[in-house]
Amino acid sequence: MNTPFYHRHVQPISRQHSAYTTRPRPYTDRATDTLNPLLRLLGIIVLCASASAWAGGHAYITNQGSDSVSVVDVTNHKVIATIGVGKAPVGVAVSARLGRVFVSNVEDQSLSVIDSNTQRVISTIAIKGAPVGVALSADHSQVFVANWFDDQVLRFDSASLQPLGSLSVGKAPAGMIASPDGQWLYVANRDSNDVAVISTKDWNISARVPVGAHPFGLTLRRDGKQLYSVNVYDNSLTIIDTASLQTSSVKVGEHPYCVALSPDQRRLFVTNTQGDNVTVIDVASRQVLTSIDVGGYPEGISASDQHIFVANWFDDTVTVIDPDTLTVISTIRTGKQSRAFGQFIDPSLP
């Protein structure tokens, strides 16, 4: 059987991997023979008072297998809406400031724009290639989309949705995140094993930082001083000092995928897709504290002002973790193959 696009194929029981196709694809999950390879294409490796009240209080979970987004109330842990989007939604970026949610749809090569007041799609942007990661600029004036197959980052005006240009980066760009001062965009290049540092002013690559094998998900400390890269093949997390670009690493679980910081920024939470758990790391000491069992094949992860939310692809659920007690407090049923790649809860809100 051919490896499905975006993840390596994983056997549901043995968890043995098949070989890559000619070009390594983004990691898929427990795919079966019946899954359309294009559906899995880019199922991997970011996010909108009136609008603040809506987007800031909700998590937007992309469900790749049901072509939908589940809107989860982050206070009562219930799905309050299900929104039909394009085929095989993967990436997500939320702006409460704009009252908008941006979702990448891999199979029909598009970006859906959701109004978070009405919870309806209001526009669709055609994107030639394979849109994966999505991120917003610090001021939310621009939307960035990682085009996996063309090794590019695209940017759009977030209000007019007009294209503003593209930039060639490393091979197979996936996760992205912008610095809080608005100067930099960080891009994980999975098949180049590095993170590109892009100047948003000059729109060029300022540096490329070597990390572990196959970086995918990224997150950034609120003050912008430390960047974290999840390295799938190394089973590691790279910590990057954004001033010096010096790095260090911490071993995590098996086949890690994405990372989020706790609301108080004291702990890191890393999803391990083939361990069905989340590794918890103390930020100050850089020591692993524990691992927390969650649903099957956890992928996307984000923090609200109180809890950690984990999308579980195999179980079609979201697990809610208390970041202080490090216990699971809720499990929420979502759509089919929940992925939620990106910051699916607006990180600019307290």
Automatic annotation (TrEMBL):
Pfam family, one: Lactonase
InterPro entries, per the entry: Haem_d1_sf, Host-pathogen_enzymatic-act, Lactonase_7-beta_prop, WD40/YVTN_repeat-like_dom_sf, YVTN_b-propeller_repeat
Protein name: YncE family protein
